Amino acid sequence: MAISAAEVKKLRDKTGVGMADCKKALEEAGGDEARAIEILRKHGEAISAKRADKIANQGLVEAYIHTGGKMGSLIELNCETDFVAKTESFQVLARDLAMQIVAMQPLYVSKESVPPEIIASELDIARQTAINEGKPENMLDRIAQGRLEKFYQEVCLLEQTYIKDGGKTIRDILNEATAKLGEKIDVRRFSRFQLGESH
Q1: The total number of structural domains that make up the chain
Q2: At 123, which CATH number?
Q3: Which domain holds residue 127?
Q4: Which of 10, 14, 36, 48 is the one with CA 20 to 30 A from 151?
Q5: pTM for the complete prediction?
Q6: 111-163, pLDDT tens digit by residue?
Q7: 132 and 36 in a common domain
């Protein structure tokens, strides 16, 4: 069946996905918009993986100041083009992430950005704790690894549970944004500030 340009544009406006992908999804769904949205959502992870090697060097720096001005954050959120950086959904995402940083106090962007000495120290602590709890010797490494994963979920922004949706991590949110906007979306860096805090 023939899909009109108006139908494609309507789906693009709703999802933020590229015109070609919207047209393909509508064709696959036989013109059913709701089904086309579902198809696009399913392809989201694949699109995100395909864009992993793209360079995201556009974007914006967003600030969030918590009520009363006692704490705040700055985040640099990157994308591939200035066009996407100016979209409302990209700007809303940047603000939501800045809010997440204030609320959840991450220390690092991702697992990969945690210094090796911190990882080694956390594994030592987890292992020693397991020994003190009387866990069997052959289980110590597995227990320590499990506790390291919990540590990552607390201190790494991408591993944290999203404050607006407990069923998703920030990594999930970025993958969805990459699929929706059709560009690689990356957190480059962030800073969190609290009044009276010394560094």
Answers
A1: 3
A2: 1.10.286.20
A3: 115-154
A4: 48
A5: 0.70
A6: 999 999 999 999 999 999 999 998 888 898 899 999 999 999 999 999 999 99
A7: no
